[in-house]
Amino acid sequence: MNDSSSSRIVDDLRVWIGTAAPGARLPATRALVARYQASPVTVQLALRTLIGQGLIESRPGAGTFVRAVRTARPADYGWQTAALRAPRNRITPVSTALRDAPPDVIALHSGYPDRELLPERLVRAALTRAARSAAAVSRPPVAGLPELQSWFARELAEVTPAGSTAPLPSDVIVLPGSQSGLSSIFRALAGPGQPVLLESPTYWGAILAAEQAGVRVVPVPSGPAGPDPDELARAFAETSARLFYAQPNYANPTGAQWPADRHDPVLDVVRAHGAFLIEDDWAHDFGITGSPTPVAARDDAGHVVHLRSLTKSVSPAIRVAAVIARGPARDRILADRGAESMYVSGLLQAAALDIVTQPAWQTHLRGLRHHLGARRDLLVTAVREHVAEASLDHVPAGGLNLWLRLPDGTDLDRLARDCESAGLLVATGDEWFPAEPTGPFVRLNYAGPNPAAFPEAARILGRVLRGGR
Amino acid sequence: MNDSSSSRIVDDLRVWIGTAAPGARLPATRALVARYQASPVTVQLALRTLIGQGLIESRPGAGTFVRAVRTARPADYGWQTAALRAPRNRITPVSTALRDAPPDVIALHSGYPDRELLPERLVRAALTRAARSAAAVSRPPVAGLPELQSWFARELAEVTPAGSTAPLPSDVIVLPGSQSGLSSIFRALAGPGQPVLLESPTYWGAILAAEQAGVRVVPVPSGPAGPDPDELARAFAETSARLFYAQPNYANPTGAQWPADRHDPVLDVVRAHGAFLIEDDWAHDFGITGSPTPVAARDDAGHVVHLRSLTKSVSPAIRVAAVIARGPARDRILADRGAESMYVSGLLQAAALDIVTQPAWQTHLRGLRHHLGARRDLLVTAVREHVAEASLDHVPAGGLNLWLRLPDGTDLDRLARDCESAGLLVATGDEWFPAEPTGPFVRLNYAGPNPAAFPEAARILGRVLRGGR
N or C: which end of chain A has fewer CB within 10 A? Predict the structure, then answer.
C-alpha cells in the first residue's frame, strides 16, 4: 500500500512526541498539512495511527494531545492463552474486502459501493427527520418497527404469485445488518456440528458466520446457472443436511443468477429433503439488465428463509436488514436475535423506512442501475483489452463484481502484493471458497471510487500478471 | 394488562375488515379516536395489532388499508420441527423487562429509564449533526471509530491508579449494545459446555446470553457486599471455570455495590485461578450517593474484561457500548464481533461521541443523579408505608431498581397477574436467578414513567399481597 506519506508523518511525529511533555498539544491539522505538504486525509490517517498506538489522544473541540503514558512496563498476557484454551475456529483476520484504502490507490477490492452511488441526500434528510421523531428516544420491539416489518413483507408479497400465501409482517425480523442475520440463522437453524450446504464459491461473510456458529460447512459447486439439482440432492442425501445457503441473484463473488427455470427444480430438491433454502438476496437493489425475483416468492410452506439487506444500497450507516421466515424457524431466529442483541436501533429503522418509501428512492434505483451498468461495461472492456491472459466467463446481469479467472499457476498472494505496490487493490478469490479454491481467481469490484481509473487498473493487473511491476 | 379498550377496537375493526374489500382504506386515526372515544395511543396500539395479524397494512403518507389476503389456506410448518431438531437451549419468551406497557398502567417492570430522564435535546442535536457528517454515508472500522475508542479508554484511564498501565484505545471494541458484548464474550472466552460463574441473582440478559452461547452456568451467591471471596474460590476450584461474570456497581436487580475493600480480594481470587472477571458496568452513569469505580481500574494484567454501555443513559436509539479487554482475549472478542456483525453504524458512534463530549452531558448526569435519588426515595418511602409485609434489605446507592423480598410462600405468578389487573406492572424475581430463586422477590424500577404514581403502586402491591385486588 502506497501510504508512505502517512508513515513518514507518523515516524516524524513519533520523534516529536518522544521529546514532548505529556499533555502537550499537537499542532493543528492545518499546520501539519502545511508542514508535511500532505493532504488533510493523509495527516488524519497519521494521527489515527498514533491514537491507535496510544501515543496521542484527540479531545473533540479542543485538539490533539500527547498522552500521559503512566508506565512503560510491557504487559504479558501469556496466562490468557491457558485460560482461553485452543480456539474452536481459526481466528480469521479481517477480510480484504473490509480494508480501508488510502486515497491514492485504485480500490477494486471492496465489497461496498462508493459514496457517489448512495442516495446521500435521501439518507441525510431521513436521518434528520428521524432525529426529530420519537424514534430518537424510544425502544422498538425485538422483531422490529411494525411499519418496517410491513414494508419488507409487502415487497416480497408483491412478487408472490396468486394462489400462494404472501408473507405476513409478523414473519419479518428486522436485523442490524445481514451479517447478524447469517449468524443467527446458522446458530438457530443448525448449530454446532450440524452440516450446512453452501454454494461454492460464495460470500466470505457467510463462510465466516457458519464457522463461528460451529456448523460443518459442505460446499456445493455452483456455476453461472446455479447449482446442479442432482449434485445438490446428492449432497443432502450424503450429509443429512437441512440447510442450503445460496445467493440465487447476482451471487457474490461470481455475479451468477439462477435462470428462472432453475428455481423450481432447486426448491423441489430442498422440499424433498425436508430442508431450508437460506436465500441471501444481498444484491436485490443492484440489478443492471434485469430485476431479481426472489426464490422465496415461490414458497409458502416455510422452506425458504429470505435475507434482504438495505445497508449496501442505502448507506453503511443504516445498518438495517431483515430475515423473512415462517413457523418455528422464525421463532427460533427471533429467540436468537433477542439473546444476541435485544433490538435494533429504532432511529436507524425509522430512517430506513423513510428512505425506501420516498418516491425519490425509486428514482435513485433507476439511476443506480444505469451507473452500475456503465461501470461494469467500462471495467469489462478494460479487462478484455489489458488482461488478455485472464478469462472472464460471465458478464453479470447485476451485483457489484467481476469474477476473473487467472492463468493456472498464478501465485495469488504475490499478485496481490505486486498490484498493491503498483497502486491497485484487488481481492484474491481464495476467501470465497468454503473448501479449496478451484482455481486462481480475483474479484474486481466495479462499484468503488474513481471508475475513470479502471483502464489503468486493468493495465496494472495485466502488467503484474506478465511478471512486470 | 388493562388494554381492554385496545382489544375492543381490534375486535370491532376485525368485523369491519371482514366485510370490507381488499384495499379499502380505514378511517383516519383521528376519526377512530372520535368513534371509539379512545386515546390516539390506544388506537395506534389496535392498528399495530391488526398490522401484525396481517389484516391491514399501513402505507406511510397514504393511510391504512385492508390487506389483500391472497388465500386463506392455513399453513402447516410441522415439517420444520423435524428439520430443526430439539432446541439446544430452552426458547426463552421475551423478558418482562422488555414488555411495552399501555399508557394507563403504572410501569415498574421495565429495565429502561423513562424518556424524561434522557438527555433528549443533546441526543436530537447530536443525531442531527451526525446526519450531516461523513458518518452518515461511511463505514467505520470493525473495532469502532478511533475517536470513540479513545473516549472509552480515557474514561477508564482517568481512574486507573498511578503505576498501573491504563488501557489503550486499541483495547476498546465498540459494540451495538452491551447485550451483543455479553454474547460475544461468552462465545469467545468460554464456548459450548465450558463452565462460567455468574453472580446470583444477576441480570437476566447475561443469563440469556450465556445460555445462547451454550456455556454451563454456575451460580455464585452475591449479597449487598458482593460475592464472598472464599465461596468464589471454591466455585473456581470445583468447576475449573475461567470466567466470572459480575456487576460490582449497582447490580441489576439488587442494587448492590461491592465495597472498595472487596475489589482486591475478589481480583486476587480471579488471578489465582488464571481467570477473567467480566465486569458489567451497566449502571456507570446511574450513581446516586456515590460514583462507581470500576474494578477494571485495578487490573492491568488483562484479568478484567470491562463492559460499558451508553444505551441506557443516552438513549435506546443510540445502541452503542464498548468492551475493554487486553491481549488475546481482546483479539478473540474482536474476531467474534467481526463474524457476528462486521461493524457498528458509524452514525450512532459519531452521535454517541458527540453527546458524551459535550459539557451539557456532565450537567445532565448531575441532574440525573438528583432525579434518580428523589425517585428512589419516593418509592422506598411508599413501599415502607404500604407494603409492610415485604422486606427491603438494601437501599441502593445507584442503579434503577429496588429489590424487594416478599413473604415466603408468595405465589409470584399470581401476584404479577393480580397487580396487572389492578393497573400495576412489576417484574417478578425468578428471571434473575441462574438456578432456583432463593425466595420470592420482585424488582421495582424507579426510573419509569410517572413517579407521582409510586404511592398508588405501593398501595396496589400491598393490597394484592394481602389477598385483595
Answer: C
